[in-house]
Amino acid sequence: MASAQKIMVIRHGEKPQGAIPPYGVTIDGEQDVNSLLVAGWNRAGALAVLFAPSRGELQSAELAKPQKVFAASDDAGKSSKRPEETVSVVGQKLKLQVDTSYSVGQEQQLATAAMACNGVVLVGWEHKHIPLIANAILGNTSAPQTWPGERFDVVWVFDLDSTGSAYQFSQVCQLLLPGDSPEPIL
């Protein structure tokens, strides 16, 4: 039986388009193709306020303050650091350690671990594999099966129903940065 009352899944922030400008940068400002663009770091900061506002209520009643944060592992430096970079600011603000025990390809294991958590869970992941997480949480393919490459601005929300036996799927458009769409992913 699932324990997590709510699981929120986001794609990492904006990324470089290969080895051409603009470049990704580490938290220390070093050029790195596996890190976020400055716009991605801006999104990471805005997400911290979205999920843990310093004053007042959350921007959307469908969101909640996470008690556990997961991010895709960077496989010992061999792949993207972007999922962890994106949720690290939320983790810092809430004084939560980001769990990077799972890597891309382990979506079923991640979903099982997230569902077993108490309270509210936030997951930062690579967009092509987020539908696999959704399928594992829902137990079906009712969520969109493709996350568009140009979309960095949506939260997929999974709420545990009143029976505690199934999750309901919804989407929240972040509307944090210029160009963010008010439309969900279809």
Automatic annotation (TrEMBL):
Q: Which domain of life is it from?
A: Bacteria
The protein's name? Uncharacterized protein
